[in-house]
Amino acid sequence: MTAPGNGVIARYHCGMAMNVRLPEELDAQLDRLAREQGVSKHALLIEGVQDVLKKHNRKRMVQEALADVDDRYGDVVARLAET
């Protein structure tokens, strides 16, 4: 499969290349899990990064929603707390 117009194999241009240096024990755990699940370590690392980003984005959305609620109803909540 080649990229249109340039004859270069497309799979070599599907993302950014990155070297990851892991402590030996973490690499061994990653290797075991990859073998158990029948996937590559690369696939597990991508899945892990995606999970971290989802968690971060959810946390940010909740914080933004709480800030919006505080902006809109903070005075009401403060008055209710006084009663």
From TrEMBL:
Which InterPro entries does the record cross-reference, listed alphabetically? Answer: Arc_rbn_hlx_hlx, CopG, Ribbon_hlx_hlx
Q: Name one GO biological process term.
A: regulation of DNA-templated transcription
Q: Which Gene3D superfamilies match?
A: Met repressor-like
Cited CDD domains: RHH_CopG_NikR-like
Origin, by domain of life? Bacteria
The Ribbon-helix-helix protein CopG domain sits at 19-45
Q: Which protein, by its recorded name, is this? A: Ribbon-helix-helix protein CopG domain-containing protein
Q: Write down the species.
A: Sediminivirga luteola
